[in-house]
User: Which sequence fits this backbone?
Protein backbone atom coordinates (compact mmCIF):
# COMPACT_ATOMS: atom_id res chain seq x y z
CA UNK A 1 0.00 0.00 0.00
CA UNK A 2 3.01 2.27 -0.39
CA UNK A 3 1.26 4.28 -3.11
CA UNK A 4 -1.96 4.74 -1.13
CA UNK A 5 -3.25 7.59 0.99
CA UNK A 6 -5.90 6.30 3.39
CA UNK A 7 -8.45 8.49 5.16
CA UNK A 8 -9.42 7.06 8.58
CA UNK A 9 -12.53 8.61 10.12
CA UNK A 10 -13.01 8.48 13.86
CA UNK A 11 -9.22 8.68 14.13
CA UNK A 12 -9.35 9.23 17.89
CA UNK A 13 -11.04 5.87 18.48
CA UNK A 14 -9.74 2.49 19.56
CA UNK A 15 -9.89 0.52 16.29
CA UNK A 16 -8.63 3.54 14.37
CA UNK A 17 -5.47 3.74 16.48
CA UNK A 18 -4.43 0.23 15.49
CA UNK A 19 -5.62 0.65 11.89
CA UNK A 20 -3.38 3.70 11.51
CA UNK A 21 -0.45 1.80 13.07
CA UNK A 22 -0.84 -0.98 10.49
CA UNK A 23 -1.26 1.44 7.60
CA UNK A 24 1.94 3.27 8.50
CA UNK A 25 3.74 -0.06 8.78
CA UNK A 26 2.49 -0.92 5.28
CA UNK A 27 3.96 2.31 3.92
CA UNK A 28 0.66 4.08 3.28
CA UNK A 29 0.06 7.76 3.86
CA UNK A 30 -2.49 8.22 6.65
CA UNK A 31 -4.99 11.04 7.07
CA UNK A 32 -6.85 10.96 10.38
CA UNK A 33 -10.23 12.72 10.52
CA UNK A 34 -11.84 13.42 13.86
CA UNK A 35 -13.84 16.04 15.73
CA UNK A 36 -11.07 16.16 18.36
CA UNK A 37 -7.31 16.49 18.22
CA UNK A 38 -6.96 14.07 21.16
CA UNK A 39 -4.42 11.48 20.01
CA UNK A 40 -4.31 9.59 23.32
CA UNK A 41 -5.48 6.23 21.93
CA UNK A 42 -3.17 6.49 18.92
CA UNK A 43 -0.35 6.98 21.41
CA UNK A 44 -1.25 3.68 23.08
CA UNK A 45 -0.83 1.83 19.78
CA UNK A 46 2.37 3.38 18.44
CA UNK A 47 5.33 5.57 19.35
CA UNK A 48 4.79 9.33 19.38
CA UNK A 49 7.10 9.66 16.38
CA UNK A 50 4.66 7.55 14.35
CA UNK A 51 1.64 9.47 15.64
CA UNK A 52 3.35 12.60 14.33
CA UNK A 53 3.43 11.07 10.83
CA UNK A 54 -0.39 11.09 10.66
CA UNK A 55 -1.95 14.07 8.88
CA UNK A 56 -4.57 14.78 11.56
CA UNK A 57 -7.49 16.82 10.23
CA UNK A 58 -10.19 18.24 12.48
CA UNK A 59 -13.77 18.04 11.25
CA UNK A 60 -17.30 16.89 11.93
CA UNK A 61 -18.25 13.73 10.05
CA UNK A 62 -21.71 15.31 9.64
CA UNK A 63 -20.08 18.08 7.55
CA UNK A 64 -19.87 16.56 4.09
CA UNK A 65 -18.15 19.54 2.49
CA UNK A 66 -15.33 19.47 5.02
CA UNK A 67 -14.86 15.71 4.63
CA UNK A 68 -14.71 15.93 0.84
CA UNK A 69 -12.31 18.88 0.92
CA UNK A 70 -9.92 16.99 3.19
CA UNK A 71 -10.05 13.87 1.03
CA UNK A 72 -9.49 15.82 -2.19
CA UNK A 73 -6.64 17.93 -0.79
CA UNK A 74 -4.71 14.88 0.40
CA UNK A 75 -5.34 12.82 -2.74
CA UNK A 76 -7.03 10.07 -0.76
CA UNK A 77 -7.20 6.69 -2.53
CA UNK A 78 -9.00 4.69 0.18
CA UNK A 79 -11.29 5.30 3.16
CA UNK A 80 -11.71 3.33 6.37
CA UNK A 81 -14.83 4.75 8.02
CA UNK A 82 -14.86 4.15 11.78
CA UNK A 83 -16.48 7.31 13.16
CA UNK A 84 -19.54 6.42 15.24
CA UNK A 85 -21.47 7.01 18.43
CA UNK A 86 -22.08 3.72 20.23
CA UNK A 87 -25.07 2.21 22.02
CA UNK A 88 -25.22 4.33 25.21
CA UNK A 89 -24.46 7.58 23.41
CA UNK A 90 -27.18 7.00 20.79
CA UNK A 91 -29.68 6.29 23.55
CA UNK A 92 -28.67 9.41 25.46
CA UNK A 93 -28.87 11.66 22.38
CA UNK A 94 -30.73 10.04 19.47
CA UNK A 95 -30.36 13.04 17.18
CA UNK A 96 -26.60 13.28 17.64
CA UNK A 97 -26.33 9.52 17.13
CA UNK A 98 -28.19 9.71 13.83
CA UNK A 99 -26.08 12.64 12.62
CA UNK A 100 -22.83 10.82 13.26
CA UNK A 101 -23.84 7.28 12.34
CA UNK A 102 -26.25 7.81 9.44
CA UNK A 103 -25.51 11.26 7.99
CA UNK A 104 -21.81 10.66 8.58
CA UNK A 105 -21.92 7.48 6.52
CA UNK A 106 -23.85 9.24 3.73
CA UNK A 107 -21.07 11.83 3.65
CA UNK A 108 -18.42 9.12 3.38
CA UNK A 109 -20.30 7.42 0.54
CA UNK A 110 -20.77 10.76 -1.22
CA UNK A 111 -17.07 11.52 -0.85
CA UNK A 112 -16.19 8.19 -2.42
CA UNK A 113 -18.74 8.74 -5.21
CA UNK A 114 -17.59 12.22 -6.17
CA UNK A 115 -13.86 11.52 -5.90
CA UNK A 116 -14.01 8.11 -7.60
CA UNK A 117 -12.59 6.23 -4.60
CA UNK A 118 -12.81 2.46 -5.18
CA UNK A 119 -11.54 1.29 -1.80
CA UNK A 120 -13.97 1.88 1.05
CA UNK A 121 -14.44 -0.16 4.21
CA UNK A 122 -16.84 0.89 6.93
CA UNK A 123 -17.67 -0.39 10.39
CA UNK A 124 -21.13 -1.80 10.83
CA UNK A 125 -21.80 -3.71 14.05
CA UNK A 126 -22.93 -6.94 15.64
CA UNK A 127 -25.77 -4.76 16.98
CA UNK A 128 -27.46 -5.13 13.57
CA UNK A 129 -28.38 -8.65 14.70
CA UNK A 130 -30.92 -7.12 17.07
CA UNK A 131 -32.89 -5.43 14.31
CA UNK A 132 -34.40 -8.42 12.52
CA UNK A 133 -38.05 -9.29 12.95
CA UNK A 134 -38.46 -11.57 15.98
CA UNK A 135 -34.74 -11.30 16.74
CA UNK A 136 -33.84 -12.66 20.20
CA UNK A 137 -31.14 -10.01 20.54
CA UNK A 138 -31.35 -6.49 21.92
CA UNK A 139 -32.71 -3.82 19.55
CA UNK A 140 -30.88 -0.49 19.83
CA UNK A 141 -30.77 2.81 17.99
CA UNK A 142 -27.13 2.07 17.26
CA UNK A 143 -28.10 -1.20 15.59
CA UNK A 144 -30.85 0.58 13.64
CA UNK A 145 -28.34 3.17 12.42
CA UNK A 146 -25.89 0.50 11.31
CA UNK A 147 -28.62 -1.46 9.51
CA UNK A 148 -29.50 1.75 7.68
CA UNK A 149 -25.86 2.27 6.71
CA UNK A 150 -25.63 -1.22 5.25
CA UNK A 151 -28.76 -0.60 3.18
CA UNK A 152 -27.43 2.75 1.96
CA UNK A 153 -24.14 1.21 0.89
CA UNK A 154 -26.00 -1.34 -1.22
CA UNK A 155 -27.95 1.42 -2.95
CA UNK A 156 -24.77 3.40 -3.62
CA UNK A 157 -23.39 0.35 -5.42
CA UNK A 158 -26.67 -0.19 -7.27
CA UNK A 159 -27.12 3.40 -8.40
CA UNK A 160 -23.57 4.76 -8.70
CA UNK A 161 -21.27 1.71 -8.54
CA UNK A 162 -19.58 2.90 -5.34
CA UNK A 163 -17.97 -0.28 -3.97
CA UNK A 164 -17.72 -0.92 -0.24
CA UNK A 165 -16.97 -3.57 2.34
CA UNK A 166 -19.08 -3.44 5.49
CA UNK A 167 -17.58 -5.18 8.51
CA UNK A 168 -19.63 -6.08 11.59
CA UNK A 169 -17.12 -6.49 14.43
CA UNK A 170 -17.96 -8.61 17.43
CA UNK A 171 -16.92 -7.11 20.76
CA UNK A 172 -13.57 -5.41 20.40
CA UNK A 173 -11.18 -5.63 23.34
CA UNK A 174 -7.63 -4.43 23.81
CA UNK A 175 -5.66 -1.27 24.57
CA UNK A 176 -7.70 1.84 23.80
CA UNK A 177 -11.12 0.20 24.29
CA UNK A 178 -12.51 2.30 27.11
CA UNK A 179 -16.05 3.32 26.19
CA UNK A 180 -19.32 1.73 25.10
CA UNK A 181 -21.47 -0.92 26.77
CA UNK A 182 -19.15 -3.78 25.80
CA UNK A 183 -15.85 -2.23 26.90
CA UNK A 184 -16.11 -4.02 30.26
CA UNK A 185 -13.76 -6.97 29.54
CA UNK A 186 -10.97 -4.55 28.62
CA UNK A 187 -11.72 -2.46 31.70
CA UNK A 188 -11.40 -5.65 33.77
CA UNK A 189 -7.94 -6.27 32.31
CA UNK A 190 -6.82 -2.78 33.29
CA UNK A 191 -8.38 -3.22 36.74
CA UNK A 192 -6.32 -6.37 37.26
CA UNK A 193 -3.13 -4.49 36.45
CA UNK A 194 -3.94 -1.50 38.66
CA UNK A 195 -5.19 -3.59 41.60
CA UNK A 196 -8.75 -2.27 41.32
CA UNK A 197 -11.86 -4.34 41.99
CA UNK A 198 -14.15 -4.67 38.99
CA UNK A 199 -17.16 -6.76 37.95
CA UNK A 200 -18.04 -7.17 34.28
CA UNK A 201 -21.80 -6.41 34.19
CA UNK A 202 -22.81 -9.45 32.12
CA UNK A 203 -22.08 -13.16 32.03
CA UNK A 204 -21.95 -16.13 29.72
CA UNK A 205 -21.17 -16.43 25.99
CA UNK A 206 -19.31 -13.53 24.41
CA UNK A 207 -17.59 -12.71 21.07
CA UNK A 208 -14.04 -11.55 21.86
CA UNK A 209 -12.39 -9.67 18.97
CA UNK A 210 -8.87 -8.45 19.65
CA UNK A 211 -8.46 -4.90 18.38
CA UNK A 212 -5.40 -5.81 16.34
CA UNK A 213 -7.37 -8.49 14.49
CA UNK A 214 -10.10 -5.95 13.74
CA UNK A 215 -7.49 -3.50 12.46
CA UNK A 216 -5.90 -6.15 10.26
CA UNK A 217 -9.27 -6.92 8.65
CA UNK A 218 -10.08 -3.29 7.90
CA UNK A 219 -6.66 -2.67 6.37
CA UNK A 220 -6.93 -5.81 4.23
CA UNK A 221 -10.38 -4.68 3.07
CA UNK A 222 -8.89 -1.58 1.40
CA UNK A 223 -5.74 -3.25 0.08
CA UNK A 224 -7.20 -3.40 -3.44
CA UNK A 225 -10.13 -2.15 -5.47
CA UNK A 226 -13.41 -3.91 -4.71
CA UNK A 227 -16.76 -4.46 -6.37
CA UNK A 228 -20.21 -4.76 -4.84
CA UNK A 229 -21.36 -3.79 -1.37
CA UNK A 230 -20.83 -6.90 0.73
CA UNK A 231 -21.38 -6.96 4.49
CA UNK A 232 -19.56 -9.49 6.66
CA UNK A 233 -19.37 -10.55 10.29
CA UNK A 234 -16.04 -10.34 12.08
CA UNK A 235 -16.54 -12.47 15.14
CA UNK A 236 -13.12 -13.04 16.65
CA UNK A 237 -13.21 -15.87 19.20
CA UNK A 238 -16.41 -17.18 20.76
CA UNK A 239 -15.84 -17.81 24.45
CA UNK A 240 -17.40 -16.80 27.77
CA UNK A 241 -16.95 -13.98 30.23
CA UNK A 242 -16.10 -16.55 32.89
CA UNK A 243 -13.29 -18.06 30.78
CA UNK A 244 -11.75 -14.65 30.21
CA UNK A 245 -11.92 -13.57 33.84
CA UNK A 246 -10.08 -16.83 34.55
CA UNK A 247 -7.42 -15.91 31.97
CA UNK A 248 -7.07 -12.47 33.56
CA UNK A 249 -6.51 -13.99 36.99
CA UNK A 250 -3.97 -16.34 35.42
CA UNK A 251 -1.87 -13.29 34.49
CA UNK A 252 -2.69 -11.39 37.70
CA UNK A 253 -3.50 -13.92 40.45
CA UNK A 254 -4.46 -11.23 42.96
CA UNK A 255 -6.92 -9.60 40.57
CA UNK A 256 -10.33 -8.83 42.10
CA UNK A 257 -12.25 -9.18 38.85
CA UNK A 258 -15.48 -11.09 38.29
CA UNK A 259 -18.80 -10.95 36.48
CA UNK A 260 -22.47 -10.57 37.32
CA UNK A 261 -25.81 -9.99 35.67
CA UNK A 262 -27.61 -11.30 32.63
CA UNK A 263 -25.97 -12.73 29.51
CA UNK A 264 -24.64 -10.31 26.90
CA UNK A 265 -27.59 -9.38 24.63
CA UNK A 266 -25.92 -10.08 21.27
CA UNK A 267 -24.77 -13.33 19.62
CA UNK A 268 -21.44 -14.80 20.67
CA UNK A 269 -20.61 -16.78 17.54
CA UNK A 270 -21.05 -15.67 13.95
CA UNK A 271 -19.13 -17.05 10.98
CA UNK A 272 -16.37 -14.75 9.78
CA UNK A 273 -14.88 -17.09 7.16
CA UNK A 274 -16.91 -15.30 4.43
CA UNK A 275 -15.02 -12.08 5.21
CA UNK A 276 -11.65 -13.72 4.59
CA UNK A 277 -13.01 -15.28 1.40
CA UNK A 278 -14.06 -11.84 0.17
CA UNK A 279 -11.02 -9.74 1.09
CA UNK A 280 -8.21 -12.26 1.54
CA UNK A 281 -6.55 -13.55 4.67
CA UNK A 282 -5.88 -11.17 7.53
CA UNK A 283 -4.01 -11.80 10.77
CA UNK A 284 -5.95 -13.51 13.56
CA UNK A 285 -5.17 -13.69 17.27
CA UNK A 286 -5.98 -16.55 19.66
CA UNK A 287 -7.93 -15.30 22.66
CA UNK A 288 -5.19 -16.23 25.11
CA UNK A 289 -2.63 -14.27 23.09
CA UNK A 290 -4.83 -11.19 22.84
CA UNK A 291 -5.54 -11.15 26.58
CA UNK A 292 -1.87 -11.66 27.41
CA UNK A 293 -0.73 -8.91 25.04
CA UNK A 294 -3.34 -6.48 26.40
CA UNK A 295 -2.34 -7.08 30.00
CA UNK A 296 1.37 -6.80 29.17
CA UNK A 297 0.84 -3.47 27.41
CA UNK A 298 -1.31 -2.21 30.26
CA UNK A 299 1.50 -3.07 32.69
CA UNK A 300 3.95 -1.04 30.60
CA UNK A 301 1.56 1.91 30.39
CA UNK A 302 0.83 1.88 34.12
CA UNK A 303 4.56 1.67 34.90
CA UNK A 304 5.12 4.67 32.62
CA UNK A 305 2.40 6.63 34.40
CA UNK A 306 0.18 6.78 31.32
CA UNK A 307 -2.67 4.73 32.80
CA UNK A 308 -3.80 4.46 36.42
CA UNK A 309 -6.53 3.10 38.70
CA UNK A 310 -8.52 6.27 37.97
CA UNK A 311 -8.91 5.03 34.37
CA UNK A 312 -10.95 2.02 35.57
CA UNK A 313 -14.56 3.15 35.22
Assistant:
Amino acid sequence: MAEDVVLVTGAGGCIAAWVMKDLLAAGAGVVGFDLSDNKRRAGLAMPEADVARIAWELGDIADGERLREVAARHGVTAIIHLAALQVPFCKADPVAGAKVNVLGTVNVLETARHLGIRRLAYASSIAVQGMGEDSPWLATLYGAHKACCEAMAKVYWQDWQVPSIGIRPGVVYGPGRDQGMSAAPTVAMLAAVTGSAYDIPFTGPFPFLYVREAAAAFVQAVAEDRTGAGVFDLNGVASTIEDVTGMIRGHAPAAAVGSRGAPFPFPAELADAPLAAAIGDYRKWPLEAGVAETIALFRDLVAAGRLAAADVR
Summary: The chain has a mean pLDDT of 95. The CA atoms of residues 206 and 239 lie 6 Å apart. The chain has one domain: 5-311.
